[in-house]
Amino acid sequence: FVFFRSFVPFCIWHENDLADSIVELTGHGRRDLNYFTLHNASLIARANVLPINKCSYPEEFSKNLSNGLTEEHLCFDNEAYLVPETCQQAAGGPIGGKKFKFNKQFRYAYALNSFGRDCGFGRAAVGVRLSSHIDWLQSVLLPDYRKDSGSVHFLHSELEENDICRHVDGAEGLCVGATRCPKIRYDFSVNRRVVFCQTSTVVCCPYENMVNETTASGRELDECAHRIKASSGSTNEAQFETGYISEPYLVEVGWRGNGDAKAQWSCRGTLITSKAVLTSAKCLQQQSIAPSVIRLGLNEAAPVVNVEETILHPEFDVASGKNNIALIKMKDAIDQSTIAINPACLWKNQTHTPFEMIQPVIKESTLGPALAFTKFNSDCDRTFRRTLDEHELCVDVEQLPYMDTGDSGGRLQVKLLHNAKVTPFVVAVTSFGSACGQSTPGVYTKVSKYAPWIRSVIAA
């Protein structure tokens, strides 16, 4: 039997505590009188879960309960009354709910409809909890199941390869082919718990245990600082002390319609390999279509290359602005021997953020620096009336009222001097908040927290 998108199995809820105090149940009745959602010719009603000691069900059902209600029962009701025959719950049908995890929505069956009337409206109805009968279900459905097998954990089939997932110990990872995760293969062989994603060949692999194919892009990202140190030429230390040198890795992201010769340059980004650009997911989503071109510099004469793929972080949330980071892959790698543009390196230190950084700004059409200083996240919490998480950074940018950042998708950077060489590091990507010249701080997305995800995408 093959499941398809509109017909998939419910997951069985194993725990005594439910994910929500409101449940959904299937029923049937008079369509001309009900106000429920029609779903495949059935009714979907919602009801409130009640404690067993507060469950008042119709007396005609008492004769079937010699011991009364027990912990195996699930009681639910709605205070409102319905016209008779409007909704009758389907005996044996699922009583369930939804839970959002692993960046997916899962449907769980908490119990099966047992008895009651009017779908629990006016008087409570009762179901039988599946969690109370897990051992019996396993004996029937999985006759070869061994309790010492480490409880192999199967996930919903819609958790696909390259989706973000969480291992059984809570570590964040990526759904990848089992061959890329030797640790998980070993854990499975010794009967430890593992998490499967789409099929038995795709597993949830913590980032630190993932074996990436040694692609040119992966090596380029890993060897960034070493490559810059080994390059020819040097940087004048006095020039370094000014806090600003040219930006040979700043690019513009553009949209070009069919037949249009001129592109609309609406976002900025940072070149981090010869084929990849780091930018803001929010900026990219402001357009109805994906970007089509990258301009390698800020002037109109700069070379333009075509976009191959745009990858927004899978957990980017438009409303809150969290996980506001994205990658753009170009169709062709730039030739650094002929084009005066070089990738910047990723700041990977997750415990320390530079106190003083540089925010590129525009002054009278000329690119220049503005100093940016790290603040406590609580300062931004008060300003924006929401709590910043560990992936976000509160920053105060130098007040320069005559400057315009024009930097949607741009970044904060720090430059370290090693062996007379300046190594540029991208510390954070613009997320939301104030531009320079205003007294309120801005919020940026920390690059270090997303370094494993960035590498997994680029090295794939």
Automatic annotation (TrEMBL):
Signal sequence bounds: none
Biological process terms in GO annotation: proteolysis
Listed GO MF terms: serine-type endopeptidase activity
Domain Peptidase S1: 230-459
InterPro entries linked: CLIP_Serine_Protease, Peptidase_S1_PA, Peptidase_S1_PA_chymotrypsin, Trypsin_dom
One Pfam family recorded for the sequence: Trypsin
Family membership noted in the UniProt record: Belongs to the peptidase S1 family. CLIP subfamily.
Record's protein name: AGAP009252-PA
Organism, as annotated: Anopheles gambiae
